[in-house]
Amino acid sequence: MARVVVDVMLKPEILDPQGQAVANALPRLDVTDVTSVRIGRRIELEFSGDADLDRVREIADKLLANPVIEDFTIHAGEQVKA
Amino acid sequence: MARVVVDVMLKPEILDPQGQAVANALPRLDVTDVTSVRIGRRIELEFSGDADLDRVREIADKLLANPVIEDFTIHAGEQVKA
């Protein structure tokens, strides 16, 4: 079994109101040295065999991310004991 | 500037309908070797100075994750050029 992680984040130029809300709440926890909060999605895919990364790229592009406003990165390699 | 990433995922025993929906859609892309899809959040925090990881743990616990149903992991170290 192989695990592939796809991280999907809003492109830097796209406003992130969810992250902004968290940033605005931080002073309530006395945290004042955080300059930016961005919130995205982390998707963990588990494959029964080896993962085909070209396939993962297609899945991310068509199903997991909206390429107009989001970027994704793929992390492979974590071997999972069955 | 330091960047800290907090990954928040549902605990393994909690049902993930969003991931299930993606898993159910995969055969439409002719992908049949994915056994599990789990979807969580990736939060990127940027600090003006060095990041205090105990502080980040407190932020994650109180603000970013719901410890009843979610686990979080903290990745530090990415140095960001200002």
Radius of gyration of chain A: 16 Å
Alpha-beta classification of chain A: alpha+beta
Beta strands of chain A, count: 3
CATH class category name of chain A: Alpha Beta
What are the secondary-structure elements of chain A, in order, as H or E? EHEHE
> What portion of residues of chain A belong to β-strands?
35-45%
What's the mean pLDDT score of chain A? 93
> In which range does the helix fraction of chain A lie?
25-40%
| Largest protein interface, residues of each chain | A-B, 33 and 33 residues
Q: By CATH's scheme, which homologous superfamily of chain A applies?
A: Phosphoribosylformylglycinamidine synthase subunit PurS
Give the total of domains of chain A: 1
**How is the CATH topology of chain A named?**
Mth169, Chain: A
Largest sheet data of chain A? 3 strands, antiparallel
Overall shape of chain A: it is elongated
Note the gap between the termini of chain A: 6 Å
CATH architecture of chain A, please?
2-Layer Sandwich
**Number of helical elements of chain A:** 2
The oligomeric state of the chains shown is homodimer
What's the arrangement of strands in the largest beta sheet of chain A?
2-1-3
Instruction: List the uncertain runs of chain A.
Output: none
Structure in words:
Two copies of one chain form a homodimer. The longest helix of chain A is centred in the C-terminal third of the chain and has 12 residues, at 53-64. Chain A is an alpha+beta fold. The first copy, chain A, has a three-stranded antiparallel β-sheet with strand order 2-1-3. The model of chain A has no long low-confidence stretch (mean pLDDT 93). Helix content of chain A is 26%, strand content 40%. The first copy, chain A, has one domain (2-79): 2-Layer Sandwich (Mth169, Chain: A). The first copy, chain A, starts with a strand and ends with a strand. Chain A binds chain B through residues 1, 7-9, 19, 22, 25-26, 29, 31, 33-49, 55, 58-59, 62-64, and chain B through 1, 7-9, 19, 22, 25-26, 29, 31, 33-49, 55, 58-59, 62-64. Strand 2 of chain A pairs antiparallel with strand 2 (34-47) of chain B, so a sheet runs across the interface.
